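Researcher: Structure prediction, please.
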Amino acid sequence: MAIRKAEVQRRIVSKDGHNNVRIDNVEGMVKLYLHDIWTTVVDMKWRYKLTLFASTFVMTWFIFGVIFYFIGMGNGDFEGGLNSNHTPCVMNVETLTGAFLFSLESQTTIGYGFRYISEECPLAIFTLVTQLVITGLAEIFVTGAFLAKLARPKKRAETIKFSQAAVICWRQGKLCLMVRVANMRKSLLIQCQLTGKLLHSNVTEEGEKTQIHQSSVDFYIDSSGECSFLILPLTFYHILDERSPLAGLNAQNLHTREFELLVTLNATMESTAATCQSRTSYVPQEILWGYEFKPVLFSTTGGRYVADFNFFDKVQVSNDATFLSNNTEKLKLEKDYKKE
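Model: Predicted structure follows.
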């Protein structure tokens, strides 16, 4: 079922969990990024990271090749008419291309044996040692950044699915707001906890108006706020009582109120013991009053359970109409549901 269409509302977090806030007019932004160069490199897009990886090697090969060329030039290795007693700093290097190839062979430890440093040139020996130390550190940094990006729990969080809409209906005699969450991989997520933040404008007792005020929204699964493991699609619920920041919400004012419900799932990956976090948000147009989720879990004749994700985002009109303002409203909901 499609969510009712309305005017696009500004939101802080997109449906896929990305930040929608733009940071602007910050002095010294480049300096701040360079101070935390590790995080900057890890957060780079893959195309920039691959460019950095390739350019790191090519530039060090070329820079030290130029240095070796100048060392040979200073030693007079490229002058004509050299006597037989003259020993070049780098044997068999007569051009800048040859110096570049010697730098490449030394850094990658290819060691063809055709170009090599003579023991008569301490400056060239010192330059070679410096090159191997500097480039070794650079390779460790770039390789570590690659591994850190590949191993980030962010990719695991992308396999956690939230329902496109939240629903409000009665559950065990209490009016509840419910969202559905599922793990799309067979590997378990343990110690799962769903938390919520209600983002809305607020006026303090002193008359100060804050555009974004955060209020905690507690979600439960069964009678606990924590799920020991996430292996089946589960429905988390928040009780709409007088203690809820959404107190006073009803079918009439749902779509006139301005707020954003940020929902975050924190979990631990059983395979690596690393923590991951996935999030989404719901605006009033994505909250359906008087609906409930359709069953998504079915049993087979072979004694197994099947989670059919064709029904994951499907909802149906709730049979319990006690929370609706009148029968007309219920008929309108049923009409909208059949139309969609």
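Model: The radius of gyration is 32 Å.
Researcher: Thanks, that helps.
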